[in-house]
Amino acid sequence: MKSSDELAGEQQEIAIAHKGAPARLLAGPGTGKTWSLTQRVIRLVKDPKVLPTNILVLTFTRAAAQELRQRVREAAGDDEVLPRVSTLHSFALRQILLNAGNLDSLPSPLRIADDWEERNIIEPDIKKALELKRVRDVRDLFAKLASDWETLRADASGWKREFPHPGFVGAWEAHREMYGYTLRSELVYQLKRAIEQSPDFEIEGPPLHLLIDEYQDLNQCDIAVVNHIRRLGAELYVVGDDDQSIYGFRNAHPLAIRDFTSDVRGAADLRLEVCRRCSPAVLKLADSIIRNEVGRVPKNLRPQDGRAEGVVQLRSYANQREEAKGIAEECAQIVASGVEPSDIMILLRSDRNGVFSEVIEEALRQRELPVHTDVGQAGPFDTDDGRRFLSLLRLAADRNDSLAWRALVALDNNRLGEKAISDIESVTRSIGGTFASTVLLNLNEDACGQVSGRLREYAQGVLDDCARIHSALDVSDTMPDEQQAEFLRRVRALDAPARIELLDDYQRAMGEIARLAEDVAAIELAEVIRAIGATRAEDETVIEPGSVNILSMHKAKGLGSHTVFVAAAEDEYIPGRADTQEKRDEERRLLYVSISRAKEQLFITYCGRRTDRQLHTGRTSGRPRRTLTRFLRNSYLKPK
Question: Is 540 a residue whose pLDDT tops 80?
Answer without folding.
Answer: no
